[in-house]
Amino acid sequence: MEFQLKSGAFNIIGRSEAFLKSIEIAKKAADSDSTVIVFGESGTGKELIARVLHHNSPREKNAFISVNCAAIPHDLLESELFGYEKGSFTGASQTRVGRLELANKGTIFLDEIGDMAPALQVKLLRVLAEREIDRIGGMKSIPIDVRVIAATNRDLEKDIQTGKFREDLFYRLNVIPINLPPLRQRKSDVPLLANYFLDYFNKKRNKSIQGIDDNAMAILVNYTWPGNIRELANYIERMLVLSNGKTIGVNDLPEKALGEAPEELLKNVTPGPDSEESPFEALRTSMKNSFFMGVPDEGLNLKQTLEDFERELIQEALEKTDWVKNKAAQLLSLNRTTLVEKLKKLKITRNC
Question: Model-level pTM?
Answer without folding.
Answer: 0.73
